[in-house]
Specification:
- With about 200 residues, this protein is α/β, with parallel strands linked by helices.
- It has a single domain, classed as 3-Layer(aba) Sandwich (Rossmann fold).
- A six-stranded parallel beta sheet has the order 3-2-1-4-5-6.
- Strand 2, helix 2 and strand 3 form a beta-alpha-beta unit.
- Helix 2 runs antiparallel to helix 8.
- It is globular and about 50 Å long.
- The protein starts with a strand and ends in an 8-residue tail after the last helix.
């Protein structure tokens, strides 16, 4: 039996914080592999980059890491009712673990069928800027079911966001956290630039 990490998100674009969290999760939670699952139509996000480009940048960024992969699913976004059965079918003998940022936990209790998720998955939580471990555990205790296992990871880049990376690419400015592979891909495809400026 393998321990499989699944990491859903927009990844617009993927940055060193995403990669760092996945690598930390591999070690902290004894994972065998982590699968990035880019969402085609993420909740509450407008004007996102085309799914094909986000997958392309992910594939380039993950090349140096043999334990990190892209999982291309037909779902518009991660849902417990739709995505989890696909994951269970794909990894029937394995233990599934869900990687999330600590900012996700406050709304986790509102997800449809969250109790099924918490029964099936361990949680690996990356602490975001401004959140403390005690605060995260209090949010977990408010869920309908406490997860079978929780691993908290101190993010190495808690303040880094994809928005910061997009702004740097837009104005062709260097920024910490921008991956060289993403810079090359974005420039080759004219992503994140404004032709009117």
């Amino acid at each position: 039996m393998k321990r499989i990490g699944t990491y859903a998100g927009t990844f617009d674009p993927v940055h060193s914080g995403h990669i760092g969290f996945a690598l930390q999760a591999l070690q902290a939670a004894w994972l065998d592999e982590v699968y990035f699952m880019p969402e085609r139509l993420p909740r509450g996000k407008d004007g996102i980059t085309h799914y094909g480009h986000r997958v392309g940048m992910l594939r380039q960024a993950l090349k140096p890491y043999p334990n990190l992969h892209v999982l291309d699913l037909p779902d518009r976004r991660f849902t417990v009712g739709g995505t989890m059965p696909r994951l269970v079918n794909r990894f029937p003998e394995d233990q599934l673990c869900l990687l999330v940022g600590s900012d996700v936990i406050k709304n986790l209790g509102q997800w449809p069928k969250v109790d099924q998720l918490l029964e099936q998955c361990e949680l690996i939580i990356g602490l975001r800027a401004g959140q403390q471990k005690l605060e995260v555990f209090e949010m977990l205790e408010a869920l309908p079911l406490f997860p079978p296992m929780v691993t908290l990871v101190d993010s190495r880049a808690p303040h880094l966001t994809s928005r910061v990376i997009r702004e740097a690419l837009r104005y062709n400015r260097p920024v910490r956290g921008l991956l060289a592979s993403v810079w090359r891909y974005a420039h080759a495809q004219w992503l994140y630039v404004s032709l009117s400026e």
